Task: structure prediction
Amino acid sequence: MIEYRLVTGLPLSDARHLYEEAGWWDRTLPDSLLAEMFRGATAVVAAFDGEEVIGLGRLLSDGVSDGFLQDIVVRSARRGEGVGAKIVEKLVETARAKGIADLYLLAVPGKAPFYQKSGFVPLANYTAMKFNWNNEPDNAAAKNTATQTRSGEKRDHETIH
Result:
């Protein structure tokens, strides 16, 4: 039976494995960066099958006006079982309980229908934007799949959502 929990601590090896499997984590990066990501989150929901972490998601927020869902990830062997949808549901419940006024996310191409089933709608008349840390001309930063973040580590921007 799958159990969904708000967690304040999570073994970094479990989280790293999920991120690596999704292609979101460079194995050369220190676990301390991953730990900072989770410490900085307003809430983290993890899905457990026994003691195994099979999925997780983060809520980032100022606690009042806006919240953002980030890194909804499920072990590939467990996708299609509703785990991701339940993680989203728990994060939405948490945001509502905290009184967060608006909740947003960035969906990778093809994933919008998944989030729409959970109540998210496309933002008409808005464009998602990303700061160009590398000062690349035109749209080169969006085309470059291995640009650097502000701290200098490499990230694959085609898979981060």
